[in-house]
């Protein structure tokens, strides 16, 4: 049986970290998924004047204060990418690359980095399109696979797939030098559309087309509607009420993922509210079962 957390927080920006602080203060068993390189976007801010108590500070200085706060409270970040979350009734099942986590409540705080979907991406999801190469690798043994990667760290997934597939095309959407296995064909082009009949058969790029059996699109995060099936959206954002509750029982959201303004102080405040709401939900469920 998997270990079950009270709260799983997906995202390690200001909203997710604020939620983690409040989950810790209220003695809940929680886990934070994200990156230990806290809020890369924040570091790029030359000066932040709209965060109360941090007037004139640079983004790096504020980021360092975030890290210090986490260290003082012994809060750790689990560097696992969550690809799918399923509501199972009394709990949520969170699918990582090679693990499954369970939590009674979840707080979505992934920001808005998921980007625009490719034409045909949603149509062929589960029919040749996937977001986790290592998860679905056995399905593509001795087949042709194309990987569209938005970050250099995805090169490890490409190398793994290359040991299974008959052919791997790698389309890097980042500027760093690509360092993948010599058997992988690097395609420096812009993907436009995914085509096929009932299953994927082709990736159309700006300057060429690739015949392929499967396409993995590896972004930092995927759109919330694909991450959590059944989640109600307002455009590209998650729809929440003032308690940061979504339409799914036990699921809360906070920060940029729920809409503008895209400000750190707003995100931190919403993370606080989401954690308090999750705690209240947990306490209510506990009273029901007593």
TrEMBL record:
The protein's UniProt keywords, in alphabetical order, are: Flavoprotein, Oxidoreductase
Instruction: Give a Pfam family name.
Output: Pyr_redox_2
Reply yes or no: does the keyword Flavoprotein apply.
yes
The FAD/NAD(P)-binding domain covers which part of the protein? 5-143
Any GO MF annotation of the entry: oxidoreductase activity
DNA-binding as UniProt keyword = no
Name this polypeptide is given: Thioredoxin reductase (NADPH)
């Amino acid at each position: 049986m998997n270990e079950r957390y009270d709260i799983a927080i997906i995202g390690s920006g200001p909203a997710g970290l604020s939620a983690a602080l409040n989950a810790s203060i209220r003695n809940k068993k929680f886990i934070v998924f994200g990156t230990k390189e806290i809020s890369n976007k924040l570091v790029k801010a030359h000066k932040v004047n709209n965060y109360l108590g941090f007037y004139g500070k640079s983004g790096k200085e504020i980021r360092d204060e975030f890290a210090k706060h986490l260290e003082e409270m012994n809060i750790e970040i689990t560097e696992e990418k969550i690809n799918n979350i399923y509501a199972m009734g009394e709990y949520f099942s969170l699918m990582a690359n090679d693990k499954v986590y369970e939590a009674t409540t979840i707080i979505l705080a992934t920001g808005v980095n998921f980007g625009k979907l490719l034409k045909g991406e949603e149509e062929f999801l589960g029919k040749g399109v996937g977001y986790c190469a290592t998860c679905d690798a056995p399905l593509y043994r001795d087949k042709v696979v194309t990987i569209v990667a938005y970050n250099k760290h995805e090169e490890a997934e490409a190398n793994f797939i290359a040991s299974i597939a008959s052919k791997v095309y790698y389309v890097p959407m980042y500027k760093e030098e690509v360092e993948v296995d010599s058997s992988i064909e690097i395609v420096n082009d812009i993907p436009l559309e995914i085509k096929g009949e009932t299953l994927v058969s082709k990736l159309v790029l700006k300057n060429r087309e690739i015949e392929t059996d499967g396409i993995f699109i590896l972004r930092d995060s995927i759109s919330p509607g694909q991450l959590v099936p059944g989640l109600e959206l307002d455009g590209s954002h998650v729809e929440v009420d003032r308690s940061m509750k979504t339409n799914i029982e036990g699921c809360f959201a906070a920060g940029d993922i729920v809409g503008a303004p895209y400000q750190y102080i707003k995100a931190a405040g919403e993370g606080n509210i989401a954690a308090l709401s999750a705690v209240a939900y947990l306490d209510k469920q506990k009273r029901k079962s007593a």
